[in-house]
Amino acid sequence: MTPDEKARFQARMFTRRALIVGSVQLAGFAALAARLYQIQVKDESRYGQLADTNRISTQIVPPPRRGRIVDRTGVVLAGGEEAFRATFTPALARDPEAVLRLVARVVPLDEREIDRLIARARRQRPNEPMILASDLAFEDVASIGLLAPQLPGVSTELAERRIYPKGSGTGHIVGHVGHVEQVAIDDDPMLRMPWIRGGLSGLERYMNPSLAGKSGRVKLEVDAKGRIIGEIERIEAVSGSDVVSTIDWVLQEKVAAHLAGERCAAAVVLDVRGGDVVAMVSVPGFDPSAIVDGMSVQDWRRLAGAKDDPMLDRATAGQYPPGSTFKMVTALAALEAGVTDYRQRIVCHGSYALGGQVYRCWNRGGHGRLDLVGALRESCDVHFYELAHRVGIDRIAAMARRLGIGQAFECGLPAGRAGVVPDRDWKIGALGRSWYPGETLHAAIGQGYVLATPLQLAVMTARIATGRAVMPRLCLSAECAAGAPASLGLDGGALELVRRGMVAAVNDGGGTARRAQLEEGGVTVAGKTGTAQVSRASARRRDGALAWELTDHALFVAYAPAEAPRYAVAVIVEHGGSGGSVAAPLASAIMADALGRDPAARPPISLASAGSGGASR
User: Which of 51, 246, 408, 411 has the smallest number of CB atoms closer than 10 Å to its CB?
Assistant: First the structure.
């Protein structure tokens, strides 16, 4: 190959190689440009967000205060007080472990708590603050201030501590706050903060969105190691709003005093016109402050597993056979069905036979011939056995539901139970068995499968007194606002006949509720006793040898004044014995206090007034 040919060959080879290399480089640059376009243009929102996440840290700012719960006059039932706490932000310290061990010389922390805090500081994001100690004494705060140069990341701040000034007197009503274990996606993110407390029961839970307020946000610029460089944006938190309850604390305290001598009992006082629960007591109770301040596992198990169950709100969740207080339901069902009227008289010989079975009246000697008013006055079982046999269980059940039994009410009320209103369909669904005629007789006098709560019995009484669908409420908030209760659609004559029977039970000779009469004021009370059987040991019951847990429940319901109803009262004493001798006197004393104070006659405090600091009488 001549030199010229060799030169031309080398030139061709160089050109080919240059073309190949250039093509590869062009393809590489094209791929790089496409990838840059993908990242910077098409996926800008995704990668921009990731970049901001690395550069920007968002911290949650909890509301300055949780709203208070006050009674209708402004008395504080749940509030807050200022307390110092110490916090630590690991990102501000070069050696978090050394700082924590140094601060333990000032703040009372044991070795186990120090190890827990160190582990948490390593695990969590470094710019998130953590609580070192709460309820610090002023001396501890001063010591931390003196050692501030040696404690980078440690700071003290004022925080709110939840308090319940009335203790167990309103424990079931206001409920309590605590750490929220499960947080929904759409819940406020502040609930995930370990020191934030949310409502777990009572009004604290029902009104938690209003009481808790809204959290704020602070966007901080951080470096690659998570150290804070500066603040970018701040959204202020909003304090919680105060909540006004329907409870009148003075009356609540008096009702609690009346029940203080009972082992287990409950009472409800209801404004029959608007449904306001002006007093509601369950005995025994619990002090929510003991839970908020923190309890050991042993103490919590001891409280939750106590024999008489102080955590149970018997007024809304205690389910009891209503006994003879249920006879008004049977009477109204029979009157509406047309199987009896004011002239009808039924003879009681002390027992009633049906299907080969004998059903006894509480008066074994019999009541003789009684009309409906007389049967309610003397609480004759046989009279209502006959009415029940005529009208049937389905109509009795429908009337019970119409009067509020079988309902779980809301509007600020603690989580209640619906009770049991049995009928044919219920028994098939619940027990898989058919209904027997004798079970209708038991249900007619509030025994058998029938169960009701004291609140339901108070609502039933208020509806009988007014003829309207009174709905109870425990909170004077917009969520619970309601107009005048609608009519129940019951015949006025039938209601008046039942009311006459209730008046006679308290005020006529032979009435089973004569101990419910008010001694002063000339006010006429209308009421009905109930003695709910819980065992068959009647012979032992008569001689007083029956154990407490086998003794009958004592019940009484009433409204007053009979001529112009204002308040309805329901009282139950668990295993108290006779409703006429035990529950009726308690209800009389409670009714006298309610009428004497008459909290429903005064307009409740406005939210503006409550927010300015209500009285703490």
Answer: 51
Amino acid at 489: G
Q: Which residue has the tokens 């969520």?
A: 479
Residue pair 199/175 in contact (Cβ under 8 Å)? The answer is yes
CA 35 to chain CA mean position, Å: 57
pTM listed for this prediction:
0.81
pLDDT of 595 > 50? The answer is: yes
Q: How many CA atoms lie within 13 A of 50 on its CB side?
A: 6
Kind and range of the H or E run holding 357: strand 357-360
Please enumerate in sequence order all residues whose Cβ is within 8 A of that of 511, keeping only pairs 6 or more positions apart, or say none: 377, 378, 504, 505
Whether the per-residue pLDDT at 583 is higher than 90: the answer is yes
Per DSSP, 189 falls in state G
Record: fold of 59-92+105-244? Penicillin-binding protein 2a (Domain 2) (3.90.1310)
CATH for 249-287+313-601? 3.40.710.10
Instruction: Output DSSP code: residue 562.
Output: S
Contacts of 376 (CB under 8 A, 6+ apart): 327, 328, 331, 498, 501, 502, 504, 505, 528
What distance separates the 2 farthest-apart alpha carbons in the chain?
A: 147
Among 379, 323, 386, which Cα is nearest to 571's? 323
